[in-house]
# Entry
Amino acid sequence: MLTQEAPYVINNGISTRIIPARHKNCFIYAWCYVIELAPFSAHERKSTTAMQEPFFKPWVGEDYRSQVPKTLVLGESHYGISESYTPEFTQYVVKDWALCQRGSSPYFTKIAKILLSKPYEWISLEEKYKLWNRVAFYNYVQQFVGDRPRMRPTLEMWLEAEEALDYVIAQLTPDIVIVTGKELGYYVSSFEEKYIGPAKFCY
# Structure
């Protein structure tokens, strides 16, 4: 259920408000969640040594740890060729396409515009660079789904990825997780049901 609460704001005016999917201004695919992660006691938190570590290391911006609140952007999956299958692949993708070292990606640009509260405005390379260095980014599925776009994760890929997300959240301790993608939202909602701690969702 959507509320009329004021949006959270990261430093320097970066808003974490996500526009509902049914609204004409929605830019992140068809669906998104915002999860507020509240701190909980040590006996409630599962030991990270018992969790499955992710294969793809998350992108963690240089200024991520100093942000209040800390924001993790959660994407769905990667595709690629076997020669590119390395733990640093997510980090390379963010550098190449979010920081525009190789080119500009509509996906990363749309997320940046929403977080900067500029959905209809042009944003500069400098604005993109500052934004992505204040947030973390992680793709949920921990395998290549194929070697080309539009290929979908299998059910097994979705299910195997859940524990790795638990590990990443425990390591990065984000205050907010922004989930992008309709099918991804379905599996994250299943994860959230087992996650210890209050959460809010924005659809």
Remarks:
- The beta strands are 32-36, 59-60, 71-75, 136-139, 176-180.
- The chain has one domain: 18-194.
- Residues 18-194 form one domain.
- The first helix runs from residue 89 to 98.
